[in-house]
Amino acid sequence: MRSSKQIEDEIRAVADADGYTLNPDREVTGGIIEGIAANEEKLGYWRCPCRMSAGDRVQDLDIICPCQYRDADLRDYGRCYCALYVDQKYLDAGSPGDPIPERRPAAKLAKRQPTGDDEMTEQQGTGPITVWRCTVCGYLCARADAPHVCPICRAKQDKFERFFHGDL
Q: What CATH code would you report for 4-94+121-166?
């Protein structure tokens, strides 16, 4: 598997080629890159760590980084949903933390029904999952631990609360 540094270099090259910038906040960018690296190791693909997943590459094609919603989010808000990719206007405005509405269709957000062949593993959408909520802005993310810094409002990890833990 590739290291977080190798993945970051690849993502930076994508950002440069597409005319975007990676978020200069190392805590935010580092946490997202670590999440992408962990998802690559577990799932074999770069699923966005800020979104719920079916744990199936075909079902998750829309949220493989860079996700299909990135360009629209950058056009409308100056950053993507998880704030990995940003534009200069966003940086010039002081990185506002306004929440971005979820563009992913509701059908993609529906709970996945496990089959008898599934291996129940954490954070793949097929077994026990933890959802964390930022108590400052309401941002939700599904991952093993709360992020070090909220990508929306920059609140520190201690401002996150466990919002949900259980089987989907």
A: 3.90.460.10
> For residues 127 and 142, what is the distance between their CA atoms, to the nearest angstrom?
12
pLDDT digits (tens, 9 = 90+) for 108-140: 775 444 433 333 333 444 567 788 888 877 788
49-103: per-residue pLDDT in tens? 888 888 888 889 899 999 999 999 999 999 999 899 999 888 898 877 778 888 9
Burial of 158 (0-12, 13-18, 19+ CB in 10 A): exposed
User: How far apart are the C-alpha atoms of 94 and 105, rounded to whole Å?
Assistant: 30
Query: What pTM did the predictor assign?
Result: 0.66
- Residue 82 to residue 32: CA distance in whole angstroms: 8
Q: What CA–CA distances, in Å, run from 148 to 15, 25, 96, 161?
A: 23, 12, 18, 12
Taking Cα atoms as reference points, which of 35, 62, 38 lies closest to residue 49?
Answer: 35
How many C-beta atoms lie closer than 10 Å to residue 22's C-beta? 20
User: Closest Cα partner for 134 from 90, 83, 75, 86?
Assistant: 83
Contact between 127 and 111 (Cβ < 8 Å): no
- How many C-beta atoms lie closer than 10 Å to residue 85's C-beta? 27
